[in-house]
Design brief:
The complex is a heterodimer of chains A (531) and B (87). Helix content of chain A is 27%, strand content 28%. Chain A is α/β, with parallel strands linked by helices and 531 residues long.
């Protein structure tokens, strides 16, 4: 263990409140909050949480739509020394319940509008068992927040190991077992990245960071904590605008956004349907993207359109925050390679072969340094999947094997080459096909099933989308299976197509022939599949 | 397409309803976005269906949150397009 001077996430806020008390910290839902007011509200709510029994190391879900109150809730959980887990209110209660159980959440913070959904998720997480000692109604707090307990005092999971016994952050990723995996991050894991980004982008209190993604998405740690690191303003985009590229473009201009981070899918849509070429936001000075590949022709157009605005390619699984960066050269063209770059300050990235040796050929991307997470939470307890790997400088490090394939160029820049497992990316969301398959298999009307990825139709820019197809042995219709899945899977994970079959094709060894299924050209009909 | 009720039928058929929900619960005032009933894919399908089944072409400039807030809001947008389109 090395000594560290990286501040806690809530200390970034306290520091901004001390240095820039009158500066705007947060805008959204028609409200404007200065750093001084945000700090006071966070401190008061944290004290209230502690008084109601929230202890350091407890894991608290924040189940609320994106608003200033939700940001107060997140910071207050951190200030109380607890671990904050943002949850998506659009997720089906069944999936939220699994997150509650897996992460060992002892309570949820929620608001009026999402209280019913939160109650339903808690009831499912407890399998209908009453929560001892918990008041029948949720406890009302300031800012329209409510505290809803999931666990009684004697049901708390074993304490987390240091440093997360003093708090941290949980983000969920799709897992292969049909359960969302809780990615347990320490204060330092997140703050290291947030501070690096604030420095690299040269953020100042004059910056206005446009926060468009859901708070469950790892991109948003930049929006909140890099802003606090610099005393800049986080501008929260109303959730419903996210699916309307034209509204996003207008919002960027109206809100005078200076720094913006989003998945390439959104940038693509802003160019293709959003009219950004006709009205580029005049104040934008930093554009960052990550989570999936950018269509090369569109990126080249952006570079010409936003003349002089640096575009940053950021890469990193949720388990490591963004851990590499590449500042796209202003004269970059679509025919050239687009590396994910090299490690952010203090982070080591290497490409290792199957024997764990550094290779100049294709291998698995390994990440080491202060951004690497603490472990996955399963059944309320953390499991550390990291390995000890010797990097090409001869130093052995605790490393996360990303599952991403890459190649390291002689200049040290890393190129991304795809996945080595069953995961696909859709609109920047990592989806494990086995997670979807488990959900299909758990439906009572389905016998066996296989979920595969297929290349979707080519877009106008020449890039291909990934489609998720579910082949199910069932008498139910496609529509019926989809309706049932909607009760257990978030929309982003729903299959694009469900193909009901009487039997699934098998290989000579008797396994389901996934290769045959994923090779079937769409739009496939049941009769196209050789059984 | 002659009425907001017909529009509701068209929208309702593009929503993947969960267990215990169905298209008959959709009214002209249902807050489509606030309830999370339509996502980007559903919006594209509604736009495509309006074009194919009703001959209504929504320009990109009309595909905005204000027009998809509820079936009533979308109906108002369609009607104002029809007025503008008249010589």
């Amino acid at each position: 263990m090395t000594a560290t001077t990286t501040p806690r996430l809530d200390a970034l806020l306290a520091r901004a409140a001390r240095d820039h008390p009158g500066r705007t910290a947060l805008e959204g839902a028609g409200e404007s909050w200065t750093y001084a007011r945000l700090e006071r509200a966070v401190d008061a709510l944290a004290a209230r949480l502690a008084a109601t029994g929230v202890a350091p190391g407890d894991r608290i879900g924040v189940h609320a739509p994106k608003s200033p109150a939700t940001v107060v809730a997140l910071y207050a959980v951190l200030r109380a020394g607890a671990v904050a887990a943002p949850l998506d209110t659009a997720d089906p209660p069944e999936r939220t319940a699994r997150m509650i159980r897996n992460a060992g959440l002892s309570a949820l913070l929620t608001v009026d509008r999402t209280l019913t959904g939160a109650r339903r998720a808690v009831a499912r997480a407890r399998d209908g068992r009453p929560c001892d000692d918990a008041p029948a109604t949720a406890e009302a707090l300031d800012h329209g927040l409510h505290l809803l307990r999931c666990l009684g005092p004697d049901e708390r999971p074993a304490p987390l190991p240091p440093p997360t016994d003093q708090g941290g952050y949980i983000l969920f990723t799709s897992g292969s077992t049909g359960w969302p995996k809780g990615v347990l991050l320490s204060h330092e894991n997140v703050a290291h990245y947030a501070l690096w980004a604030a420095r690299e982008f040269g953020l100042t209190p004059d910056d206005r960071i446009g926060s468009q993604a859901a708070l469950t998405f790892d991109l948003t740690t930049f929006d909140l904590f890099s802003a606090a690191a610099a005393g800049a303003c986080t501008v929260l985009m109303p959730d419903p605008l996210r699916v309307f590229p034209r509204d996003v473009v207008a919002w960027l201009t109206e809100q005078r956004v200076t720094a913006f981070m989003a998945v390439p899918s959104l940038y693509h849509a802003m160019l293709q349907q959003g009219g950004v070429a006709d009205a580029p936001p005049a104040t934008l000075r930093i554009a960052a993207f990550g989570g999936e590949p950018f269509a090369p022709e569109l990126l080249e157009r952006y570079l010409r359109l936003f003349d002089g605005v640096p575009f940053y390619n950021l890469y990193g699984p949720t388990e490591t925050n963004a851990c590499t960066y590449y500042r796209v050269p202003a004269d970059w063209t679509a025919g050239r390679e687009l590396p994910i770059g090299r490690g952010i300050g203090g982070v080591h990235v290497d490409v290792l072969d199957d024997e764990g040796r550094p290779t100049d050929g294709e291998g698995e991307i390994h990440i080491a340094g202060p951004v690497v997470f603490q472990g996955y939470l399963r059944g309320g307890a953390p499991e550390d999947p990291t390995v000890t790997a010797v990097f090409r400088d001869g130093v052995a490090r605790r490393a996360y094997a990303s599952g991403d394939l890459g190649r390291m160029r002689p200049d040290g820049q890393v190129l991304l080459r795809g996945r080595r497992d069953h995961q696909v990316k859709r609109r920047g969301h990592r989806i494990d096909l086995m997670d979807v398959e488990h959900a299909v298999l758990e439906l009572k009307q389905v016998g066996t099933a296989a979920v595969v990825a297929k290349e979707g139709p080519r877009g106008p820019d020449g890039s291909r989308t990934v489609e998720i197809w579910a082949y199910a042995q069932t008498d139910a219709t496609e529509h019926e299976v989809l309706a049932a899945l909607r009760g257990v899977l978030p929309k982003r994970m729903l299959p694009d197509r469900v193909v009901p079959l009487t039997t699934l094709p098998t290989t000579t060894s008797g396994k389901v022939d996934r290769r045959a299924l994923s090779g079937t050209a769409g739009p496939a009909h049941p009769e196209d599949v050789t059984v | 397409m002659n009425s907001v009720e017909e529009l509701c039928v068209l929208i309702g058929s593009r929503i993947t309803w969960g267990p215990g929900e169905d298209a008959s619960s959709l009214t002209a005032d249902t807050p489509l976005l606030e309830m999370g009933l339509v996502d980007s894919l559903a919006i594209m399908e509604i736009v495509a269906a309006l074009d194919k089944e009703a001959g209504v072409t929504l320009p990109d400039t009309e595909i905005v949150a204000a027009n998809f807030r509820s079936p009533k809001a979308l109906w108002a947008a369609i009607e104002s397009l029809a007025v503008e389109g008249r010589p």
